[in-house]
Each structure stands twice: as structure tokens, then as C-alpha cells.
Amino acid sequence: MRYQITGKQIDIGEALQTHVKTELNEAVSKYAGRPTDATVIFSKSAHEYVCEATVHLSTGLTATAKAHATEIYASFDDCCAKMEKQLRRYKRRLKDHHKDRTEPVELFGASSYILAGDHGSEEDEPESLQPMIVAEMEMQIPSLTVGEAVMQMELAGSPVLVFRNEKKNGINVVYRREDGNIGWIDP
């Protein structure tokens, strides 16, 4: 597994990097057979250390966890425990959905835009009806089944996931509704 361990305006020592590699490898290898890479980012927010970890599995799923603590090692340990809990919770589903999959999930490139919000009043008419783009990023759209997409959305903790439906070969969307259920858009 490839590791990328960084700190935002924090110096990360060799001892912490070794601790992260050993503990994360032990936690992930229990529940996921083939992790490909892991990204761990440490930062400081006021008096607390923040640890964000993302692990990509060869099945195409991504597990993400985030934790806060007053000690940097404790923040990582909490984050690792959250990730382990996520993977343990979905272990059976991961095995059921991916037992027939022999290749990693196919990914397609796409652009993602962040548009500026309308902070003016309704009386102010903009000069142009084109929205102002604040940021433009490259995104990956995975090719998944609907069940895998719902599981990926829940693992990532995101409210929405755009994916390419393997069965119909079209772009689909799954999202969490306000009532707690999952919505599926299949154009």
C-alpha cells in the first residue's frame, strides 16, 4: 500500500509516520484485502490536532475518516478506529458485492466546478447571467452498480455520488434524502 502522510503547517516526524503506517496497515488489512493507497493529513485547529485519513481500495471504494484530539497520536488513533469501524460495518456487503469483480473499478475523468453564491439582493441585476466560477477541479467518476454506489456514498460520508451505472452504461446519481432514505436518479 502506498502512503502519503503530510502535515498542514505541522512538522511530521519519522516516528509518527512509522506509527501511522503500522497501525493503518493493521486496521485496514483486517477488513479489506487489497488496499491500494492511503492519504493521511494532519493539521491543527486551535488547540486540537485534526487527522483526516482516506484509504482507496482496489474494489474502487474509498473509506474516509476524520478525528480531533488534543494530542497528535490520539487524533490519529481515533481516526484509525473510525475507519476500522466503517470497514468492519461494511465488510459483509463489500464481500457480497465484490466477490465476482476481478478488476478494479473503472474510473472516468470529469470536471467539477464551484460556483460563487448570490450574495447580492434581488434588486441588483448582474451584468451577465453567467455564474462566476470560483474553482475548477478534476474528478473521477467510478463505474459501479447501484448497490456499490450507495455503499461508496455511505463509506465516504458524502450526501451525493455521481457514478456510471455498469448495467445501463449511463450516468446516474444516488443521494441521501432529507427523510434519511436514499434517492436514485436514473435518466
UniProtKB/TrEMBL annotation:
Primary location class: cytoplasm
Top-rank taxon: Bacteria
Keyword check for Mitochondrion: no
Keywords tagged on the record: Cytoplasm, Translation regulation
Domain Sigma 54 modulation/S30EA ribosomal protein C-terminal as annotated: residue spans: 130-183
Subcellular location(s) per record: Cytoplasm
Alphabetical list of Gene3D superfamilies matching this protein: Ribosome hibernation promotion factor-like, Sigma 54 modulation/S30EA ribosomal protein, C-terminal domain
Database matches in Pfam families: Ribosom_S30AE_C, Ribosomal_S30AE
Alphabetized InterPro entries for the sequence: HPF/YfiA_ribosome-assoc, HPF_long/plastid, RHF-like, RHF/RaiA, Ribosom_S30AE_C, Ribosom_S30AE_C_sf
Annotated function: Required for dimerization of active 70S ribosomes into 100S ribosomes in stationary phase; 100S ribosomes are translationally inactive and sometimes present during exponential growth.
PANTHER family membership: 30S RIBOSOMAL PROTEIN
Quaternary structure and interacting proteins, as annotated: Interacts with 100S ribosomes.
The protein, known as: Ribosome hibernation promoting factor
